[in-house]
Amino acid sequence: MGRVVCEHVVKKFGEIYAVHDFNIDIADNEFIVIVGPSGCGKSTTLRMVAGLEQQTSGNIYIGGVLVNDKEPRDRNIAMVFQNYALYPHMNVYENMAFALKLRNVPKAEIDRRVKEAAEILSIGQYLHRKPRELSGGQRQRVALGRAIVREPAVFLMDEPLSNLDAKLRVQMRTEIAKLHNRLKTTTIYVTHDQVEAMTMADRIVVMRDGVIQQIADPQTIYDSPANKFVAGFIGTPPMNFLTCRLERADGLKLIAQGLQVALPAAMADKLAGVVGREVTLGVRPEHMRPATGSGHAQATVEVVEPMGSENYLNVRVGSQGMVVRVKPDFKPVPGEAVAFEFDLGKIHLFDHDSGITII
Ligand code: ATP
Q1: At the topology level of CATH, where does 240-351 sit?
Q2: pTM (2 decimals)?
Q3: Is Zinc-finger one of the keywords UniProt gives this record (predicted)?
Q4: Ligand 1: which of 20, 40, 156 to mutate, most ligand atoms within 8 Å of CB?
């Protein structure tokens, strides 16, 4: 009932493609997070599914029904916005009951649904308050409550947590995940926050400039990014990128100033086309460690950032900067030379021009 299918969905504003050939098949009960930088087309995509924006071309199906020409109210969806969009003159109960009243749902049924949603969201004691008498977190719960009482086939959420402070955002993230575990309603959730994407999604859709870059579960996105953009977008601190040359000398080697990496023979087949050329090496900060011997990279430490449970080292390798995550007891001083070795099973190589993943 909550399956959502987008087929070749396009949205143009004038000559600009806000969304370009968007395709996805979302299973009933799935939690999908659409993530990407500002302006990549996330909200436009969600608004097309909601029916708030008409696609330029392509088809959208909700619960097996083609909804291209259906009004938002006839799509069996409920939307939760960043600004909550509560009615200021109504109390919490009335805000949650409003859409049901419009649909002539019997009073007793409205009462049951509102009280049940209030119980799930722990806002039972605020039912008679007006939105202005609530904190940001409580207002967001009411906004969620209003979506829940409608018992839609699909929840559509557009950056619902971005007006909350950092601590509350983490709390509400868990609440929404719990809510989904309980209700199992198909959810499409838009955010620019990659941590929300990683922690909440069954599958993540990474977008850039209106184009889907990759659709996969969070671990696959992290371990096997489709290209350099996805690799750099997911992960904190982000993946390090180093321009180097791939040379054949006694096996395959990556060479750059301050860097020499002999690659495992097993990689040779995939790299045959780029020998003698520049490639981009990708190494996550957690996949490097101080070397016992000469290591792969000869670095100079610039800044040490203690995070409590670990230290982030900002280092320079030749003219290229990197960030390394190390144990808290490893505290070199700025200016110190440190050799690092990479976990060669975890490195990535990208085509220097297109950014497409080679390994
Ligand atoms: P953000 O995270 O900043 O909300 P987004 O990824 O949700 O960004 P969209 O709001 O979907 O991005 O916008 C995608 C592109 O379409 C942007 O380039 C934006 O400027 C453009 N756009 C969005 N709405 C309109 C509109 N009504 N008229 C013209 N251009 C628009």
Answers
A1: OB fold (Dihydrolipoamide Acetyltransferase, E2P) (2.40.50)
A2: 0.94
A3: no
A4: 40
